């Protein structure tokens, strides 16, 4: 009788497990699943030991723990840690840990020098006469990033087999912004309660905090703002500082700094000053002391994020001071501790003030004149577009217009305006579109950035994001924050391989689904440059008819301007002139509807319904065709998923399938409601072949969603 050796048996079982129908997954493991690799792939992994020269640190402990977890998951065995370098070692080294890397003769020395504090390289190398797999960096955090990169390469190898990766982040600040409230509700959150259990902190530190740190570090995210931009004074009181410090302690080994959103009027509201005027010495003194107190508890505290004089939030303008006065006062308080202030440019005329003729112009008008007036440790954080996280917006005109001010991009990862976590929309494609836009003044948008912030889609749902596919948006955000020039399709391919399977029968169709999904949403919600047509306050379903809100620029009718004659917002010189805020080249090109990208047509132009589109259709017919295309897109997404059933674990298959089926209905609702409304305005008949909406307009107008999630 023949016996298998233990190792051979394990390998056999693992390869069976990898090919057999996979067990149910709940999505908690995100893209860090480390499922058993196929046998051939396992055999390619030549790791016999793990070597870390020098003393361990909490960060190298995290790297080693991750490598162990990854290797035991993928190959069934975790190699022992060893002190000596031998053949087959996975070697983690910095120049300080391994003098060979610092030696003048080392070819890696120059390469490493170019990678900065956070970069890393992965190489098959010969060190001390041994063949090793090398993860090298200049710092321990670089090693952690390198470890995650190596695990990624191993779990889902890129087409090229040779291990020759070197990578360094292009942006220094790569943050998540949680819009999480202190009662654990999440403003615009569609994934359950906040993961921050403020009540239980600081004593109870949920395992989730560590897993959150792992997931973010795997992408290179290095900062997180714990609380909502619509902030409360209490977050800056001693008990909450202690709670934030406890979170900071968990995140620190993973290279993630904690930041807080500060309410500008905090000292006044806590009754500790008589004013919040940024030029008042008592106010300045209060913030200095507050910063000192925070840094006592959190020595590497990142700094403050501020929403001021926007949507009712207090700010320096309450005292006739400028945004720069306000930001610089806070900046002075954190500067001695090397902290920063991220001051948001999301403003549009405060209540009661003179309303600009176009909300899209407001941020530029307020901030452009302040270029050069901000302290060195202030960054202005600008949303990707000038309105508000719409399914499609042209890039914000402030990018490229503030050469003397470091700017941060603010993307919204949570899908407030793109169907919550029930509709599939891969935002990687949208982020990429903005980042690669040419400002014609200072290169691409990506090139104007000093940092990036993503409004998180994370909650305490088991799968973190509310749906499996929404994990891809967190992933894509993180990878683009590391490299804003990366391609969203490559990122999608990586994510699909890691999250579902490297098997191309699975990964390739998922990539196609991701890549078509965002345009599909644009088609059924806001085609041809339409925007801000969502229902009041919940922002989910269609409500292009809304015209009764107290501010004109809250009403959808303000944005689409549809009437008997035509539709669209004229932002050219004959309209609001918002176009003039862009570089002259762009302004000239977009001044003419014929040379305006079709996808932004109605953003910049008001056109007659019978305007002849490049397709040969009238604008009216084109609009209808787009809605139909959107509905068809959702049906195609569903059909593409259904055929994958045999290759996906039952639980995730079903959870995704239900959402895709529901998305078809949401698309039909958008289509029908929009057509019913715009037809009531245009008075035009539906061309032959176009199906009439299922219900009269009154039906759609009567729909209401009083308990929609995410209103904080
Ligand atoms: C809007 C959201 C609102 C946020 C605001 C902001 O509806 O909940 O507070 O953006 O970014 O889109 O401050």
TrEMBL record:
<feature type="active site" description="Proton acceptor">
    <location>
        <position position="416"/>
    </location>
</feature>
<dbReference type="GO" id="GO:0045493">
    <property type="term" value="P:xylan catabolic process"/>
</dbReference>
<dbReference type="InterPro" id="IPR011395">
    <property type="entry name" value="Glyco_hydro_67_aGlcAse"/>
</dbReference>
<dbReference type="InterPro" id="IPR011099">
    <property type="entry name" value="Glyco_hydro_67_C"/>
</dbReference>
<keyword id="KW-0119">Carbohydrate metabolism</keyword>
<dbReference type="Pfam" id="PF03648">
    <property type="entry name" value="Glyco_hydro_67N"/>
</dbReference>
<comment type="similarity">
    <text>Belongs to the glycosyl hydrolase 67 family.</text>
</comment>
<dbReference type="InterPro" id="IPR037054">
    <property type="entry name" value="A-glucoronidase_C_sf"/>
</dbReference>
<dbReference type="GO" id="GO:0033939">
    <property type="term" value="F:xylan alpha-1,2-glucuronosidase activity"/>
</dbReference>
<keyword id="KW-0732">Signal</keyword>
<feature type="signal peptide">
    <location>
        <begin position="1"/>
        <end position="22"/>
    </location>
</feature>
<keyword id="KW-0378">Hydrolase</keyword>
<protein>
    <recommendedName>
        <fullName>Xylan alpha-1,2-glucuronidase</fullName>
        <ecNumber>3.2.1.131</ecNumber>
    </recommendedName>
</protein>
<dbReference type="GO" id="GO:0046559">
    <property type="term" value="F:alpha-glucuronidase activity"/>
</dbReference>
<dbReference type="Pfam" id="PF07477">
    <property type="entry name" value="Glyco_hydro_67C"/>
</dbReference>
<feature type="domain" description="Glycosyl hydrolase family 67 catalytic">
    <location>
        <begin position="160"/>
        <end position="464"/>
    </location>
</feature>
<feature type="active site" description="Proton donor">
    <location>
        <position position="311"/>
    </location>
</feature>
<comment type="subunit">
    <text>Homodimer.</text>
</comment>
<feature type="domain" description="Glycosyl hydrolase family 67 C-terminal">
    <location>
        <begin position="466"/>
        <end position="689"/>
    </location>
</feature>
<feature type="domain" description="Alpha glucuronidase N-terminal">
    <location>
        <begin position="30"/>
        <end position="150"/>
    </location>
</feature>
<keyword id="KW-0624">Polysaccharide degradation</keyword>
<dbReference type="Pfam" id="PF07488">
    <property type="entry name" value="Glyco_hydro_67M"/>
</dbReference>
<feature type="active site" description="Proton acceptor">
    <location>
        <position position="388"/>
    </location>
</feature>
<dbReference type="InterPro" id="IPR017853">
    <property type="entry name" value="GH"/>
</dbReference>
<dbReference type="InterPro" id="IPR005154">
    <property type="entry name" value="Glyco_hydro_67_aGlcAse_N"/>
</dbReference>
<dbReference type="InterPro" id="IPR011100">
    <property type="entry name" value="Glyco_hydro_67_cat"/>
</dbReference>
<dbReference type="InterPro" id="IPR029018">
    <property type="entry name" value="Hex-like_dom2"/>
</dbReference>
<keyword id="KW-0858">Xylan degradation</keyword>
<dbReference type="GO" id="GO:0005576">
    <property type="term" value="C:extracellular region"/>
</dbReference>
<keyword id="KW-0326">Glycosidase</keyword>
């Amino acid at each position: 009788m023949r016996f298998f050796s233990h190792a051979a048996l394990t390998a056999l079982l693992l390869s069976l497990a990898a090919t057999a129908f996979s067990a149910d997954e709940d999505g908690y493991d995100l893209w860090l699943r480390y499922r058993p690799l196929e046998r051939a792939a396992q055999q390619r992994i030549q790791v016999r030991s793990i070597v870390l020269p020098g003393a361990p640190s909490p960060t190298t402990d995290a790297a080693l723990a991750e490598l162990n977890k990854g290797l035991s998951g993928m190959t069934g065995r975790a190699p022992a840690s060893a002190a000596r370098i031998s053949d087959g070692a996975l070697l983690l080294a910095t120049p300080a840990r391994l003098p060979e890397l610092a030696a003048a003769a080392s070819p890696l020395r120059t390469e490493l020098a170019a990678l900065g504090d956070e970069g890393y390289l992965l190489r098959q190398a010969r060190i001390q006469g041994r063949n090793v797999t090398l993860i090298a960096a200049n710092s321990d955090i670089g090693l952690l990033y390198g470890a995650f990169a190596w695990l990624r390469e191993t779990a889902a190898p890129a087409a090229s087999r040779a291990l020759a990766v070197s990578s360094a982040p292009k942006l220094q600040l790569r943050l998540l912004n949680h819009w999480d409230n202190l009662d654990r509700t999440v403003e615009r959150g569609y994934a359950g309660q906040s993961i921050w259990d403020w009540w239980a902190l600081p004593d109870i530190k949920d395992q989730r905090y560590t897993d959150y740190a792992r997931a973010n570090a795997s992408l290179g995210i290095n900062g997180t703002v714990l609380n909502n931009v619509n902030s409360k004074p209490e977050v800056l009181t001693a008990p909450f500082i202690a709670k934030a410090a406890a979170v900071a302690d968990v995140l620190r080994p993973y290279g993630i700094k904690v930041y807080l959103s500060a309410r500008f009027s905090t000292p006044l509201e806590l009754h500790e000053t008589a004013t919040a005027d940024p030029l008042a010495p008592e106010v300045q003194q209060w913030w200095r002391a507050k910063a000192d107190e925070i840094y006592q508890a959190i020595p590497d505290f990142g700094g403050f994020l501020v929403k001021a004089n926007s949507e009712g939030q207090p700010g320096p303008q309450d005292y006739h001071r400028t945004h720069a006065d306000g930001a610089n006062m806070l900046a002075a308080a954190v500067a001695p501790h090397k902290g920063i202030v991220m001051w948001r440019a999301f403003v549009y005329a405060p209540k009661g003030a003179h309303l600009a003729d176009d909300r899209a112009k407001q941020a530029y008008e307020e901030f452009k004149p302040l270029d050069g007036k901000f302290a060195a440790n202030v960054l202005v954080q600008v949303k990707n577009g000038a309105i508000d996280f719409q399914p499609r917006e042209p890039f914000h005109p402030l990018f490229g217009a503030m050469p003397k001010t470091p700017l941060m991009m603010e993307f919204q990862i949570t899908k407030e305006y793109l169907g919550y976590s029930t509709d599939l929309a891969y935002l990687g494609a949208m982020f990429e579109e903005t980042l690669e836009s040419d400002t014609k003044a200072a290169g691409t948008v990506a090139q104007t950035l000093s940092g990036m912030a993503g409004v998180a889609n994370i909650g305490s749902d088991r799968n973190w994001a509310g749906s499996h596919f929404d994990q891809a948006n967190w992933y894509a955000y993180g990878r683009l924050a590391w490299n804003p020039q990366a391609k969203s399709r490559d990122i999608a391919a990586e994510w699909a391989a890691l999250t579902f399977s490297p098997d191309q029968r699975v990964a390739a169709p998922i990539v196609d689904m991701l890549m078509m999904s965002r345009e599909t949403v644009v088609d059924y919600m806001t085609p041809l440059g339409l925007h801000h047509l969502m229902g009041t306050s919940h922002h989910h379903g269609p409500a292009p008819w809304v015209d009764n809100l107290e501010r004109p620029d809250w009403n959808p009718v303000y944005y689409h301007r549809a009437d008997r004659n035509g539709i669209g917002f004229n932002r050219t010189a004959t309209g609001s002139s918002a176009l003039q805020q862009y570089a002259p080249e762009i302004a000239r090109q977009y001044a003419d509807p014929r040379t305006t990208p079709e996808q932004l047509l109605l953003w910049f132009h008001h056109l007659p319904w019978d305007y002849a589109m490049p397709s040969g259709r009238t604008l009216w017919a084109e609009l209808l065709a787009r809605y139909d295309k959107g509905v068809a897109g959702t049906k195609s997404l569903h059909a593409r998923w259904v055929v994958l059933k045999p290759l996906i674990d039952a639980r995730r298959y079903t959870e995704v399938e239900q959402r895709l089926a529901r998305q078809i209905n949401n698309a039909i609702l958008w289509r029908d409601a929009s057509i019913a409304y715009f037809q009531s305005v245009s008075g035009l008949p539906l061309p032959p072949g176009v199906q009439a909406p299922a219900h009269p307009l009154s039906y759609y107008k009567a729909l209401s969603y009083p308990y929609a999630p995410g209103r904080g």
